[in-house]
Every structure is written in structure tokens, then in C-alpha cells.
Amino acid sequence: MVRHLIFKRKEPGQERARQTVESIIEATAQLLDQDENASTNRIAERAGVSIGSLYQYFPNATAILAAMAERERVRVSEGIRRALEELDPEDPEPAIRAAIRALLEAFDKRQRVRRKILLSLMPVVGREAQAQFFEAAVDEISEAVRSAGGDGPFRPLSRTATLVLGSAIMGAVRTAVMTETSDLADPEFEDELVLLAMGFVTAPRGGPAGRP
């Protein structure tokens, strides 16, 4: 049932077809950003295409939102990966900050649109929609922090520690996007996430004192 709801009918092969899909996705983003109803009829009208052309590529509005979410996931992950290419195990803070900044900047732009994508998809695919939207990007940062440990001055992170760190970053960003209570462009928000990540690798080796 879920796969049927979000399945894209066909991939655009020619340039004209790709432009049609781009117009449909951009029209959907505009409607969501303007807090308007993003029905397939409204989307087709805004995109300047026939409803038949829209249905050639997307069976419903949910499929368009799913395609938008996947695009965002890929784009954010690529930006973070580029930032982490400069990671120095002896001094990981600059690269980790750049990666976190890439994550925040990606979600800060058209934040209302991203929030509505998540809210619209959750009734269909539940938490999986949120996971796909956030986890791949956060995993890049968490894995980079984990790899910064080892023989250098920072402690190595176990998979459990990496999971905790990733969940903490993901939870903070997701809450900010979903509730609109925090400004992702606020330098303090970025600083706190960097402190969180660096705190994991600079914590004493062997875990908290007094643990059995």
C-alpha cells in the first residue's frame, strides 16, 4: 500500500520531460511555502502543465512530496560529505563545524516547505519519512566524529556512542524544523551542536567515572 502511494510512474528521459518534472516539484514547493493547498490540480496549474502530464510522472501529491524529500536527502548528504573531506583527525572541529553548518543551512532555506513535506508524509510512511529525511545526513557527521578518534588525542566512539550522537543532532534539528521554535541560522544553535559533537570525542576514555 505504501509503495503504491509513493511510487513515481516513470523517470523523465528527455530534457523536456526533466523540465516538466522540475516545474512540478518547484510549483509544489511554492504552494507549500505560501501555505496554500498543494493538490495535484493546483500543482499542475501552478507548474503550467496539464493534469495528465503530471500524472505521467506522479500518481498523486504524496508521490511528489516523497520525490522532494529524497532530493533533499541526497543534496544535504552531498554537502556534508564535501565538508568532511577536509577533516583532520588531529583537529576535527573545523570540518565538523562546516558539516553541521551545511546541515543547518540546507534546512533553514524554505524551512516551512520541509516541515510540510514531513507532516504530509508521516500519515503514509510514519517515522520512516523522518528517518529518510534526516538520518543519512546525520550519519555522515556522526561517522566522521567517530573516525576522528583512535590513536589521536580523541577517544574512539563505539557504534553505540555514534548512535547516541546522531540521535541527539537529529532530534535537535528535527524539533527545530517541525516546531519552528528555533532559528537554524542562529549561530548559538550551530555552536551548541558543535559543542555536542566535540564533547563526544573529547570525553575521557573509558566512559564516565564510577560506571561498573
Describe this structure in words.
The protein is mainly alpha-helical and 212 residues long. The protein has two domains: 11-59, Arc Repressor Mutant, subunit A, CATH 1.10.10; 62-202, Tetracycline Repressor, domain 2. Helix content is 72%, strand content 0%. It has ten helices and no strands. The chain has helices at residues 2-6, 15-33, 40-47, 51-57, 61-84, 93-108, 111-125, 127-147, 159-179, 187-202. The chain is elongated and about 60 Å long. The chain starts with a helix and ends in a 10-residue tail after the last helix. Residues 1-7 have low confidence and may be disordered.
Explain the layout of strands and helices.
Layout: H1 2-6, H2 15-33, H3 40-47, H4 51-57, H5 61-84, H6 93-108, H7 111-125, H8 127-147, H9 159-179, H10 187-202
Helix pairs in contact: 2-3, 2-7, 5-6, 5-7, 5-8, 6-8, 6-10, 7-8, 8-9, 9-10
Overall shape: it is elongated
Helix content: over 70%
The beta-strand count equals: 0
CATH topology of the largest domain: Tetracycline Repressor, domain 2
* Oligomer category: single chain
Measured on Cα atoms, how large is the radius of gyration?
Answer: 20 Å
How much of the sequence lies in strands comes to under 5%
Q: List the uncertain runs.
A: 1-7
Domain HTH tetR-type: 18-76
DNA-binding region: 39-58
GO molecular function: DNA-binding transcription factor activity; transcription cis-regulatory region binding
Keywords: DNA-binding, Transcription, Transcription regulation
